[in-house]
Automatic annotation (TrEMBL):
This is Phosphatidylinositol specific phospholipase C X domain containing 1. GO terms for molecular function: phosphoric diester hydrolase activity. GO terms for biological process: lipid metabolic process. It comes from the Eukaryota. Gene3D superfamilies: Phosphatidylinositol (PI) phosphodiesterase. Pfam families: PI-PLC_X. SUPFAM superfamilies: PLC-like phosphodiesterases (SSF51695). It comes from Zosterops lateralis melanops. InterPro entries: PI-PLC_domain, PLC-like_Pdiesterase_TIM-brl, PLCXD1/2/3.
Length: 337
């Protein structure tokens, strides 16, 4: 009998080549005007249960973890894991935006870099970049956006090391930021990777690095509050280029204490019916209320990737943002969930 993880993995195959299968009328539209599925905190599927707590966590969390590890560590893991698919499985599922929170372990004399979300991962950044390259080599018309963020504990020397690794591994597959990233252009030039880098000092030195990609993070425990936040951000107007609408809920201490048998996965799965409705109402494109990247947790569930990809079928139809009737229908659906 298959467990839930195996079921999710099987559900996720089938979108590995979706960019190459888009109609030609979309090949000249910049990627920041298409709908792209993304994963939030991409690398949390391989968090190390035995690693130290991140240096950026609060003193209280570090103290409790040190004094009561048998109690605190399982709680940390329940609320830190946001994905169960490996990076290759996510790419094969159709994810095209990867959210990399990069860190260097305190007191580690090596140059090894890891991913972090409260605790560190078992794999290094360099190993995952090579894994992505291997996938790209078998999917020559797919494009991946890698957002390098956070940089806990990275010195100037470590930044130099990380950028050198990125350039060495991806080489000519890296798309320079002066290129308008349409599929036709990227296919013609052989580019498959866009790397955004959240460290301003490095951007001026490397044309292969793109500016940080804005992430609409609601920081909400309630699905309806998250949707209200996303609708507010849409009314304010989308950025001109890449940006992410995060459909991930976020726990806080109060929520954890009032849900002693809960987990981030349970919290996410409960939110998916409402969020699925919201996703299907969206339009990609350059207009004020249009979306670009939509990133979520546990991306193998509930047709999330398929729903985002299918938004691209709305392009080059009479493009408009939600009509009054659509909004009324949307609100009515939410009330019945």
């Amino acid at each position: 009998m298959e467990g839930p993880l195996q079921t999710i993995v099987h559900m996720c195959h089938g979108h590995g080549q979706w960019m190459s299968q888009l109609p030609e009328k979309l090949w000249d539209i910049p990627l920041y005007n298409l709908a792209l599925p993304g994963s939030h905190d991409t690398m949390t599927y391989c968090l190390d249960k035995s690693s130290a707590v991140s240096v950026n966590e609060s003193k209280l969390v570090k103290f409790l973890n040190k004094c009561l590890p048998c109690i605190v560590r399982p709680i940390i893991m329940k609320w830190s894991v946001t994905q169960v698919l490996t990076v290759t499985e996510q790419l094969e599922a159709g994810v095209r935006y990867l959210d990399f929170r990069i860190a260097h372990k305190a007191n580690d004399p090596s140059m090894n870099l890891y991913f972090v979300h409260m605790v560190y991962t078992t794999v290094t950044v360099q190993d995952i970049l090579w894994e992505i390259l291997r996938w790209l080599e078998t999917h020559p018309q797919e494009v991946v956006i890698i957002a390098c963020r956070n940089f806990d504990g990275l010195t100037k020397r470590l930044h130099n090391h990380l950028v050198a690794c990125i350039k060495e591994i991806f080489q000519c597959k890296l798309c320079p930021r002066n290129v308008v990233p349409t599929l036709r252009t990227m296919w013609h030039l052989g580019h498959q990777v866009i790397v955004s880098y959240e460290e301003a000092a490095e951007l001026g030195k490397h044309c292969e690095l793109w500016p940080p990609i804005p992430y609409w993070w609601g920081n909400k425990t309630s699905t309806r509050a998250l949707i209200r936040y996303l609708e507010h951000m849409k009314r304010m107007g989308r950025p001109g280029e890449f940006f992410v609408a995060g459909i991930n809920l976020t726990e806080n201490l109060r929520y954890i204490l009032t849900h002693p048998f809960g987990s981030l996965k349970k919290m996410t799965l409960q939110s998916l019916p409402c969020l699925k409705i919201w996703i299907k109402q969206q339009y990609p494109g350059p207009k004020k209320k249009c979306i670009n990247i939509i990133a979520g947790d546990f991306i193998g569930n509930n047709d999330f990737v398929k729903d985002v990809i299918e938004l691209n079928t709305k392009i080059n139809t009479p493009l408009h943002c939600q009509s009054e009737l659509e909004q009324i229908a949307f609100n009515s659906q939410l009330l019945h969930l």
